[in-house]
Amino acid sequence: MYTGMEMHPTGSSSRLKSTGKRAEAMSILAQIPEAHDVQFEPLQTDKNRPPQLRIPLYIDVTDPYQLFTLFFTETLWKLLATNTNSYAYAKESKNHSLHQRSWYPTTPEELKVFVGAQIYMGFTKEPELKDYWDDGLDNNTVHANHPLSAYITQYRYEQLKRYFHISSPPEIPGGFITTHYPPEPTPEQELQMSEEQLSANISIDEAMVRSHGRSSHTFKLPNKPISQGFKLFVLADHDYVYYFYPASRTKGVIEIGTPTELTKTGQMVYELIQTLPRDERNYIVYLDNYFTSIDLFKKLRDIQIGACGTTRPTSASKDFSDLLKKLKDLSNYIPYHKVCAIPVRDVLCVA
Length: 351
Hints:
The protein has about 350 residues and is α/β, with parallel strands linked by helices. Among the domains are: about 1-45 and about 280-350, no CATH class; about 65-175, no CATH class. Helices cover about 30% and strands about 20% of the residues. The strands form three sheets. Strands 1, 6, 7, 8, 9, 10, 11, 12, 13 and 14 form a ten-stranded mixed beta sheet that branches. Strand 8 (about 230-235) and strand 9 (about 240-250) form a beta hairpin. Helix 4 (about 75-90) packs across helix 5 (about 110-125), helix 8 (about 265-275) runs parallel beside helix 9 (about 295-300) and helix 10 (about 315-320) packs antiparallel against helix 11 (about 320-330). It comes from Talaromyces stipitatus (strain ATCC 10500 / CBS 375.48 / QM 6759 / NRRL 1006). This is PiggyBac transposable element-derived protein domain-containing protein. It holds the Pfam family DDE_Tnp_1_7.
């Protein structure tokens, strides 16, 4: 378990021009024990344990729909239908237009058609939505005959798209409120999590889900590959997202679990780790600057979880030894390949 700080080689010209700083750097190095003299006991893990999927025997892995049902179970479809109907009735009750077609309840079977239509449209692009229902009777048409009209009308598709709701909509006087809360694992999610055997090396990082809808919770990050959307903190293993917690632009990092001495970010990482299947398995979690802290790493070590992460130089003066902060500032004047190791409360800091 350690935090790493990168050192860079220095050119001869910089050494000649900055002998004062080089002398200061060497005096700091003299205060730090040699790395081979540091006593530190790393956690023992099965670092070669590979990730595995334990897919039920009744699932035909060559059938895409059967794999799809592992994530979208019948129980989930019923929940989606219930919440969509609740939202539609609540919105329709506030709309007194004489020209509005009334809503009739949707079903899990109809929602499967709706989602299937969405997937189909993702593979067959058309300039306008109505083109998917073009019957081809007009000789001037340039669009292919799509099969959607055999399963769902355009109007019903638009109705479902308008009212489709995943969560139960809480109604309040004057309309609806937008809730933001940590997701609790559903029975379906717990089943999926039990089917994944994680490797020994996992990571926690930020991720973005693209969204250009109106929400007070979305972020705009123009320098990222996904510049706008919902931010998630994900626990991942070999490109597989095992679990996640959302963040909010207005509320920040959500508070999860019982309050501790950790920051909200540190507590969120700790709670993500708690979702891991333990048994006899141990893990090493890899983090970046945003998450690393001495308090978090110490708490993870207490529950036999290894941690490895980088840290910003500005964090060193708060959480780490002042010597590390000074070494970072003087990194250009330290001999190349010089390794410094400083134990801090059972956490090994390496520069």
